[in-house]
Amino acid sequence: MSARTRFALAVVVLGLLMTGPFVLTALIVWLETHDEGRQQLTEVLLPHLGIGTMLTIVGFAAGVGVLRILFRQYVQGLLRMAENLRLMLGANRGFRVQPEGPPEVRMLASAANELASQRDEILADVEAQIARAKDSVEQEKNRLAALMSELTQSVVVCNLDGRILLYNNRARMQFRALSDAPGVAGGGELIGLGRSIYAVFERNLIAHALETIQQRLRRGAAQPQANFVTTTRAGQLLRVQMAPVLSVAKPQGEGAAGEEAERTQTGFILMLDNITRNFETESRRDQMLHNLTEGNRAALANVRAAAEMLEYGDLPDDMRDRFRRVIRDEVQGMSQRLNETAEAFADSLKARWPLEEMLGADLVAAVQRRIEQRIELRTKLEEIDENLWVKVDSFSLIQALTYLASRLSDEFEVREVRFRLTAAGRLVHLDLIWSGQAMSTETVMSWELEPMRIEDESSPLTVRDVIDRHDGEMWLEREKVRHRAFFRVLLPAAVPQEQAEAELFLRGESRPEYYDFDLFAWSEKSHGIEDRPLTELVFTVFDTETTGLNPSQGDEIIQIGATRILNGKLLRNESFEQLIDPRRPLAAASAEIHGITEEMLKGQPAIDTVLPAFHAFAADTVLIAHNAAFDMRFLQLKEEATGLRFDQPVLDTLLLSAVVHPNQESHRLEAIAERLGLTIVGRHTALGDAIVTAEVFLKLVPLLADKGIRTLREAREAAEQTYYARIKY
Asked: The pTM is what?
């Protein structure tokens, strides 16, 4: 039963107690008197009945007043004290209960404050000891963090779901350069702890590289790696080296002491190099070499013709001089072209498509699995040299061979293909064999030159592009006796890799600027987002500054600021902040609050440019705002114009504060922060308010847990029951 219900019940009981005896006595006297006496009694009591009634009413009102005072001092005062005590115990250790109310309540408040002071002394001593113990370890971590941040190569570590759990500053800068809108809020919507690496890289490409590493792990490789080159959505070329993150599981049970520990992959490391400029340089070099050879070919022909003419003895002197000038001019032109080429590329390095070395049998096994899974075509091995190593771009080559098998199955009803891998000096022959009707050379050429497409997967590359990438060849051969045919692919051989002992590698730890190793065990697939604990979710905490307070009447957003919370930690370095040109005047009252002027907004991007970047920044997260209905209304009004919907769950710190502290008078952001012992910095800037809101939310999470509210569903349902949830904009 609530406190207000108990108060109403007490008022009713008090009224009955005060009026009941008077009414009951009058009724008894009335019933016991005869008719004549009843009339006389009425004449006697009637003048006094009005006075008694008035006195009863006055007494009742006085009783209610006294009861209300007692209720406010004892019941409501103790409820407010209980909320304050919870603040003092958890969210705000420096908070103290104000001694107010009757003496008994003040004594209770003073005793609670004394206990809190003693608790703080004990905790301060424990924390000091812990701080001293951690100091030396923290110094080592900071040194390693500095080393990691100064690496010239981009490093990103992901769990097996592709969620980023570590990255260094070089990777952060490189990912921002890859953004579709690098000029908006720093372009940092691609990189971040907990974000998916598949926002940058194709999922199939990562899956193929992981499969390659798994094969090498099964073969016992001490340092399994995979390499590939990919094109980002911004059109840049990245060379990627992938290495596994391994955990060692010690054998358990009897007789396990002598057994070797099993290595399992828990994630992967990506080391990135942007080779766009190198590739462009090589393309220019190739073009210049082409121009050089073509230009010199014509010049040499002219020189040869002029030299032949000079061999005639009866050639007139003027003709002889003309042919000599031709030779001199052509030689000078050739020399000039050679000098220009040498000067243009004197400092250029030769940038090639990187090819990785791998065991040929592993390549064939990967092709078999791909063909059987994608096109459900049987495969067999005919002759495989287990000792052959090849130098290939395995992803594109497997794609090309799968494409050829798909065309054979679709157009010639081939039901089985076989593989043969043999040495040919410094080259390797990889044969794709099938039985069936003959195929024309024109068909082979058309297959070679068409972009590859397998069901719903397509590639801009052709088979000829893939073969040229390997400096190889491909042709069709027939075995008339066995009624078979095969595609022969000529590939470069590689020197077998030396397997170094695992103990020779230096193993160490590093602590870069941005990391969260708890993500190794984190997976969105573990359970539904609504029933996940708040401490496990990823949040985007945001705030907007606007031209005014009436979104439905045309007011616009002029600034968006946001930060992220992951695994209960505020990621201050992963933020979004951008001014926006509203293309309408600012309200004077609004400008006085946030301090943003029309001059500051000139030249800033419009909302239709900023909102897609913010949408990407907030993707796959739960939104948090203070008085979220206001901010969300602005975003909802832009859905039709931008085609973007912010349809993820939303939490409101105003509503959550009302859930935790229903007896507090104010739930303004400043009042909540003060209650929770938070210092407000940058108030009424979008990013400043977002950071304060994030800190408030992190303080509210344990207070919600004390009330049994732990999951996203429970928090949303509790917030919807508050009075403030009825406010609309």
From this structure: 0.63
